[in-house]
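A.,

Following up on our hallway conversation. Structure tokens first:
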């Protein structure tokens, strides 16, 4: 399938090291007493603190520098807009919920159905997931893009105007800010409406093929809970598309926690608050509550699977810290986490014994040409790999350590648990740029394409892995051999295997 091929023959894999075996330490000079003469000190060894515990101003500065370094990837977050043509597709009919119900009768309904059928024949071959792809030109998707276009322009104009209007009387300045936020909220209602308590369920009940899913068979004793937390710019329409695509991929019911959008620009500002000030939003707390409920022994769930995308990965890192602080390792071992385009700056998962961690399993997937991945998971996994294989000056400019000393910037170590699979392609959208390439669906969108349990040749899962930076003990294997998520496709359950994480 053209949609799922990549130009690279290898997949870069980043695997961390056990900090207890190779701790990152430093020496601290300690005065013998408050009145000791200058130089009367002794040195003690100390383990470097975690990077994400640095002061917020330091994290903001680092994020700004990293943003400038990665800014060239921003135009490609929506690339490609479509894929090469795939003939023979037979996708489900387009949704007609955009039409008022009182119009859907007799000849009008028939005419709309005929027009949509003709339209699908022209458009469907270029979108591997059909209407679920975020940039598929359906009424719902085009409306989302239209609202986001307005929000981008108005929010940029608002931020640019603030310095020029700062000379206004304080009351007028506050009124201006409050008025804009109110208007912005009204526009965002067009995107966020339609959820109940910020939650959505996959629409599997409407699909005939779902009647054959094992997860819906009462005789199968299905005991899993699958939860998804979305990223930036996602309204209820795109969230529904995300959880429907995940549900078709893994043939399981999916619960979506809605990380409500305020527009792309304001969402990025929220990301900075979460990443630099460790700020937990209402949807972060909602997702945490769902996970803890699923992990409750009274629910008798064998497994809880959390899927995160973009900003959802950032919020997921906070949720993970909360879970590690409040629950026993036996409980958390039933949790598995999978992220796509993760925007987090850390991901904790302490090791309990050799090759064993508190969390049952963690995997990350990132596109090389994805701005968010470069700003998040790829950057920080690279730093973790460099810690285990330090290079001279760590690749930094020779004057940077002097600048650090002048600004009194303390050294810190990075932690990012889980194996990262890096795909050498562009794009950030979950369905169109991640799932379509990793788990391509068949011509009827009813199951992932495979051949006797193996991925098709030249697809991402059939690629060979190599170390992205430093050493990796899974180098040389096929991605499908070490991707636990692959073993869940089409309603399957993974073989129990142990994969070293950090």
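Then the amino acids I'd put at each of the 502 positions:
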């Amino acid at each position: 399938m053209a949609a799922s091929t990549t130009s690279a023959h290898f997949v870069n894999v980043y695997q961390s090291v056990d900090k207890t075996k190779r701790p990152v330490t430093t020496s601290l000079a300690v005065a013998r007493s408050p009145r000791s003469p200058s130089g009367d000190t002794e040195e003690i060894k100390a383990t470097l603190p975690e990077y994400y515990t640095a002061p917020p101003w330091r994290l903001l500065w680092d994020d700004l520098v990293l943003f400038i370094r990665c800014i060239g990837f921003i135009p490609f977050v929506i690339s490609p807009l479509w894929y090469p043509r795939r003939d023979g597709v037979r996708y489900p009919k387009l949704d007609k919920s955009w039409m008022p119900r009182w119009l859907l009768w007799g000849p009008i309904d028939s005419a709309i159905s005929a027009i949509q059928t003709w339209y699908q024949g022209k458009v469907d071959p270029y979108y591997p997931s059909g209407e679920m792809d975020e940039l598929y030109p359906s009424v719902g998707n085009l409306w989302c893009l239209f609202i986001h276009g307005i929000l981008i322009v108005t929010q940029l104009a608002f931020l640019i105007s603030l310095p020029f209007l700062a000379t206004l009387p304080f009351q007028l300045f506050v009124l201006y800010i409050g008025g804009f936020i109110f208007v912005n909220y009204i526009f965002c209602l067009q995107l966020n409406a339609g959820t109940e308590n910020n939650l959505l369920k996959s629409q599997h009940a409407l699909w005939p093929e779902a009647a054959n899913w094992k997860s819906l068979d009462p005789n199968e004793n299905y005991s899993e809970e699958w939860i998804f937390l979305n990223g930036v710019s996602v309204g209820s329409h795109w969230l529904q598309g995300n959880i429907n695509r995940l549900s078709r991929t893994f043939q399981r019911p999916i619960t979506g926690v809605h990380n409500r959008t305020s527009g792309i620009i304001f969402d990025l500002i929220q990301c900075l608050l979460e990443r630099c000030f460790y700020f937990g939003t209402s949807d972060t707390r909602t997702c945490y509550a769902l996970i803890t409920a699923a992990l409750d022994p009274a629910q008798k769930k064998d497994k809880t699977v959390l899927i995160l995308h973009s900003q959802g990965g950032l919020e997921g890192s906070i949720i993970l810290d909360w879970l590690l602080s409040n629950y026993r390792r036996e409980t958390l071992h039933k949790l598995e986490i999978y992220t796509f385009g993760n925007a987090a700056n850390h991901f904790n998962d302490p090791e309990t014994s050799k090759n064993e961690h508190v969390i049952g399993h963690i995997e990350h997937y990132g596109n090389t040409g994805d701005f968010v991945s470069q700003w998040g998971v790829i950057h920080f996994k690279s730093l973790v790999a460099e810690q285990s294989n330090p290079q001279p000056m760590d690749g930094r400019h020779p004057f940077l350590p002097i600048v650090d000393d002048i600004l009194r910037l303390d050294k810190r170590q990075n932690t990012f648990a889980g194996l990262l699979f890096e795909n050498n392609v562009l794009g950030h959208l979950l369905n169109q740029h991640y799932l379509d390439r990793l788990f391509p669906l068949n011509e009827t969108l009813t199951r992932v394409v495979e051949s006797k349990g193996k991925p098709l040749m030249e697809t991402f899962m059939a690629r060979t892995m190599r170390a992205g930076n430093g050493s990796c003990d899974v180098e040389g294997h096929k991605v499908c051999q070490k991707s636990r998520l692959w073993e869940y496709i089409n309603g399957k359950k993974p073989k129990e295997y142990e994969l070293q994480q950090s």
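Residues 2-15+52-83+197-491 form one domain. Curious whether your intuition agrees with the design.

B.
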